[in-house]
Amino acid sequence: MNIPNKLLAELKRAKSILFFTGAGISAESGISTFRGEHGIWNKLKPEELANFDAFMKNPDMVWEWYQYRRQIVDDSEPNPGHITIAEMQNHFENSTVVTQNVDNLHGRAGSKNILELHGNIERNFCIDCKTYYNSREFQFAEKHVPKCEKCGGLVRPDVVWFGEMLPAGVFEEAERKASESDICFIVGTSAVVYPAAYIPISAKQNGAYLVEINIELTNISDSVDCCLIGKAGEILPRIMEEYLTAIK
Ligand code: BV8
Ligand code: ZN
Fold it and tell me: Which of 34, 119, 124, 181 is 20 to 30 Å from 102 at the Cα level?
């Protein structure tokens, strides 16, 4: 894969960089994406699982689904895509990772300034008194939805379900960082979920150079400046390698 000279020139010029990531960056860590050929939503319906009504209708089923995903996340490791982003962040004055993922792999890869738009699967809270519970407090084998020790309420994953607001202030901060970015990488996302998908649009509206990395074309491919088709875990290390050579 040849890295375009224009991209390298933009990287050399950039002071602030933003990485907007989706499930595709975790695919090479063995975590299923949501859409596309082997996506989760092909087998299960998001409305049956990733929303509050579904949880209230069948809390054990939704809890078990998240326990299953937590086990996969727990058994997985950050891949070269996550690791390269963490390394690249050290070469820029301002760098932010805005992720739609709830798997915390950017955190485990050593990234900083991470904004998790859709929450984090390692955190849980009581729907009544909001008491926080770390996932480690529950056995993966625990299939039944836990009850709050304080008030007996149902404990749910601290992730943003469809129809729910994003965590207060996180989206606004992500938009602000996007509007200040000189270069915005869009990595492994189908860019169909809102308001998250507004982030790269906000970057573009403020003059950022947009680079998409995906194994296929997406909704946003027509709007980017540079579209690199391939695996994030292969392309990002190539970009880093060529960038380090270019700045020597
Ligand atoms: C809300 C739960 C408002 C956590 C998820 C306009 C404005 C606002 C809202 C809406 C709007 N239009 C529609 C809505 C409603 C809805 C929405 O966006 N629906 C869509 C589907 C049409 N949005 C909401 O409900 C949001 N809330 O707006 O509230 C509100 C509320 C109350 C009152 C007033 C207003 C909440 C959205 C969050 C939903 N939660 N998940 C969890 O369990 O994980 S969404 C789910 O999709 C995941 O969180 C995921 O992060 C997200 C995005 O998916 P992607 O990350 O892009 O993953 P996907 O599988 O789609 O794509 C993977 C890509 O990777 C593919 O392109 C593939 O080609 C690529 N790939 C694969 N392998 C690789 C690769 N690329 C590179 N390398 C590889 N190796
Ligand atoms: Zn409680």
Answer: 181
Q: Which residues pair with 209 in a beta bridge?
A: 183
Indicate left, alpha or beta for 83 from its phi (over 0: left) and psi (-120 to 50: alpha): alpha
Tokens of 7: 């991209």
- How many other CB atoms sit within 10 Å of the CB of residue 84? 23
Confidence of residue 155 (pLDDT cuts 50, 70, 90): very high
CB 143 within 8 A of CB 58: no
**C-alpha separations of 178 from 114, 172, 203, 205, 209 in Å:** 13, 10, 5, 9, 11
Residues within a 6 A CB radius of ligand 1:
22-24, 27-28, 33-36, 39, 50, 100-102, 118, 159-165, 188-190, 192-195, 213-216, 218, 231-232
Q: Ligand 1, from 67, 73, 114, 162: best to mutate by most atoms within 8 Å of Cβ?
A: 162
pTM of the prediction? Answer: 0.96
- Just list the catalytic residues: 118
Output the CA 44–ligand 2 centroid distance in Å.
Answer: 29
What would the pLDDT profile of 176-231 be if each residue is shown by its tens digit?
999 999 999 999 999 999 999 999 999 999 999 999 999 999 999 999 999 999 99
Segment 56-79 mean pLDDT:
94
Cα distance between residue 77 and residue 28, in whole Å:
9
